[in-house]
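Subject: Sanity check before I submit

Could someone independently write out the structure tokens for this chain? I want to compare against mine line by line before I put it in a report. The sequence has 143 residues.
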Amino acid sequence: MIKRIIVFIAIFLSTLSVHAQQGLHINEIFTGKIVPMRNGVEIKIKGKSVSKYKLNYYHSFKFVASQQQNEEVKELISRDSPVQEWKNLQGKKTTRIVQFKSADKQNRFLCYVSQEKRTGVEVVVIYMEGWAKDIFELRNLIK
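---
Independent answer below. Compare away.
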């Protein structure tokens, strides 16, 4: 009986995490279609732990990608938000912060940071949902 409950909870939680980015191309990043999830570090936080930042969901994935994989990630982000520009900092570092259209009265944000290393491109992609009204408010809360 306990095993059934544990399996049910695991299935339920996995469907919640897929639902958060559902409808966005970036969902492929968080489901391991570009870089296998075992090749990176994934963090998911929900609820009270992120509420002080006016968020209710935080999902990040950090990994080392090849140039081709990094370009695929950037293409997926561009498909979801084509008007945002990429910022190149200090030569080898690229960032992009995006606010998507609201879904279910929740604002949705994405942060992308990459830096070229000898072993490949280190990439961090963070998806967030919550009631922070815009990117500027979110930045001020995180500082």
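---
OP: Matches mine. For the report I'm noting this point. The two ends are 46 Å apart (CA to CA).
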